[in-house]
Inverse folding.
C-alpha cells in the first residue's frame, strides 16, 4: 500500500484528493492548520484506509519541522508528496497591494512548499523512489492584471517544480507540476477575505473546474507505471481559454 502526504487537505483540491486516494488504497498523512477539519476528515477516511494527521502552518519553518518529527515511524515511507497548500490573498495592482498579503502568499505558496519538501526529500532519496506533485496554477504560466504577487508565487512553484525534476533525477524520484485554471473551492473566499458574494461571482455563469476534477488528474498522474513521469500539466475549464477569457452565459 502506498503512502501519500497531502498538504492543504482540509479543503478544496487537497480534500478531494485525500478522499479519492482513500478510496483507492492509499494510506494518508493529511495536513492543514484547521484541527477540527483534520479530525473530521480523519474520522471519515479511516473507515477506508489508515490515516494520520499533522497540524501545522506550512509558512512557519519550525512548525513544519516539529510536526514532521511527530510523524509515526510506520508512516515515514512516503511514496507521494502532494504540495497543494496555498492560496491567493487579495487582488490588487502592485501600487495598491497590501504588503501583508504579499508576504503571506510568498511565505505559504513558495517557502511553505520548500519547507515541507526539505523534510520529505531525504526520505525519498533514501528509498531511491518517490513522487512529488506540485500544485501550481495557470497563474504560474500567464500573468494577469492584479494577480502580480500571486502569479509570482506560482511562477516560482513552476520553477521549483522544474528544479526538483533536475535535482532529484539521479535519485529516481518523479516530479510533476499540475497547473489548474479556475477551480470552484474556498480559494476565492480566502482571496476576498470572506466576501462570499464576490467569491461566488468568480464561478458564476459557467462551469468551473471542480476539486474532484483535479483530484482525478492527480490520481491519474501518480498511478502511471513507474517509468512514466507526466512532468507538466495545464488544465482549464472548457469555458476558460486564458486567465481573463472566460465564456459566461450572462
Ligand atoms: P482552498 O482554499 O479550498 O484550500 C486551500 C488549502 O490550503 C486548505 O486546506 C488550507 O488549509 C491550506 N492552507 C492554506 N494556507 C496554509 C498554511 N499557511 N499552512 C497550511 N495549510 C494551508 O483552495 P484550493 O483547494 O483551490 O487550493 C489548493 C491549491 O490549488 C493552492 O495551492 C492554490 O493556489 C491552487 N490552485 C487553485 C486554483 C483555484 O482556482 N481554486 C487554481 C489553480 C491552483 P488550512 O486553512 O486548514 O490550513
Ligand atoms: C487560481 C486560478 O486564475 O484565480 O490559481 O489565479 S486564478
Amino acid at each position: 500500500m502506498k503512502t501519500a502526504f497531502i498538504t492543504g487537505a482540509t479543503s478544496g483540491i487537497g480534500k478531494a484528493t485525500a478522499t479519492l486516494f482513500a478510496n483507492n488504497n492509499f494510506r494518508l498523512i493529511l495536513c492543514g492548520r484547521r484541527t477540527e477539519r483534520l479530525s473530521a476528515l480523519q474520522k471519515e477516511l479511516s473507515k477506508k484506509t489508515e490515516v494520520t494527521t499533522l497540524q501545522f502552518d506550512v509558512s512557519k519553518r519550525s512548525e513544519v519541522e516539529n510536526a514532521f518529527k511527530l510523524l509515526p515511524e510506520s508512516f515515514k515511507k512516503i511514496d507521494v508528496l502532494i504540495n497543494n497548500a496555498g492560496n491567493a490573498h487579495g487582488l490588487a495592482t502592485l501600487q495598491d497591494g497590501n504588503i501583508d498579503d504579499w508576504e503571506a502568499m510568498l511565505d505559504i505558496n513558495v517557502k511553505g512548499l520548500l519547507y515541507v519538501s526539505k523534510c520529505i526529500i531525504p526520505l525519498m532519496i533514501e528509498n531511491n523512489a518517490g513522487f512529488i506533485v506540485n500544485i501550481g496554477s495557470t497563474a504560474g504560466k500567464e500573468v494577469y492584471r492584479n494577480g502580480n504577487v500571486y502569479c509570482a508565487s506560482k511562477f516560482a512553484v513552476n520553477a521549483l517544480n522544474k528544479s526538483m525534476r533536475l535535482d532529484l533525477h539521479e535519485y529516481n524520484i518523479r516530479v510533476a507540476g499540475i497547473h489548474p485554471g479556475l477551480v470552484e473551492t474556498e480559494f476565492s473566499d480566502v482571496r476576498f477575505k470572506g466576501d462570499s458574494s464576490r467569491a461566488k461571482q468568480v464561478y458564476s455563469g459557467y462551469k468551473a473546474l471542480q476539486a474532484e476534477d483535479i483530484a482525478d488528474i492527480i490520481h491519474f498522474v501518480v498511478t502511471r507505471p513507474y517509468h512514466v513521469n507526466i512532468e507538466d500539466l495545464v488544465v482549464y475549464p472548457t469555458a476558460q481559454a486564458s486567465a481573463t477569457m472566460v465564456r459566461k452565459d450572462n
Observations:
- Residues 32 and 67 are 11 Å apart (CA to CA).
